[in-house]
Amino acid sequence: MARASFDIHLHHLLDELMQLGGMVEKAIATSLQALKDRDLKTSERVIKEDDFIDQKRWEMEERCLELMATQQPMAVDLRVLVTILHISVELERMGDYAEGIGKISLLMGDEPPLKPLVDIPLMAEKASDMLKGSLDALVRRDTTEALAVCNKDDEVDELYDVVYRDLIELMIQDPANVQRATYLLWVAHDLERIADRATNIAERVVFMVTGKLTELNVSKY
């Protein structure tokens, strides 16, 4: 395979990765909106559509491995392929968290959330912004932007702590609240993990550009 052909395949893989990222961003936003609206049909759709995210990830992995096996890329090209491979896995896991929120919504049924959803949607917004920022950093090969994404993770952790404390307090006040509070704790946990995965993507971007893989955000939480 000539160099020009290899570059075309690499460019297509990056395009596919951006498409996968868009699918995941949509799944996160839709799952939260369905949770807020108590729209169980939309929650069911999020769950079903996770299969498309899974399939997309497997297809990308096969293509990455095929290029590695047939072209034996070195140095920067290999780092790009490894980065695409790892990021596709991170995105697929994020899709699983969105699916998980959809399943929690179904468990809640027609019952409204235990408390008004204020901090949880804010967590979702910040986590989604981190995801978008990490993918933008990938496209631009911008390590400064990647580092900025990592630095935002503490904001999501702080919100998670607020949600956790509030829900624990509601459980203490009335044990009858335990199940409904637990559902929201699961949602908050899924969102916190999405932010962590966005941080992982940003770290992979730095690796791709510099060749150094290090933990960029050692949270105090």
Looking at this protein, list some descriptive labels.
221 residues; mainly alpha; Methane Monooxygenase Hydroxylase, Chain G, domain 1; 0% strand
Kindly summarize this structure in a few lines.
The protein has 221 residues and is mainly alpha-helical. The chain is 84% helix and 0% strand.
H and E string? HHHHHHH
Stretches where pLDDT falls below 50 for ≥5 residues?
Answer: none
Question: What's the total count of β strands?
Answer: 0
Oligomer: single chain
- Figure out the total of helices: 7
- Tell me the helix content: over 70%
CATH class: Mainly Alpha
Strand content: under 5%
Structural classification? mainly alpha
**Domains counted in the coordinates: how many?**
1
Net shape: elongated
Topology:
Layout: H1 3-37, H2 40-71, H3 75-108, H4 119-140, H5 143-151, H6 153-173, H7 178-210
Would you kindly provide a written description of the structure presented here, covering whatever features stand out?
The protein is mainly alpha-helical and 221 residues long. It has a single domain (3-210), classed as Methane Monooxygenase Hydroxylase, Chain G, domain 1, CATH 1.20.58.220. 84% of the residues lie in helices and 0% in strands. It has seven helices and no strands. It has helices spanning 3-37, 40-71, 75-108, 119-140, 143-151, 153-173, 178-210. α3 packs antiparallel against α7 (178-210) and α4 (119-140) packs antiparallel against α6.
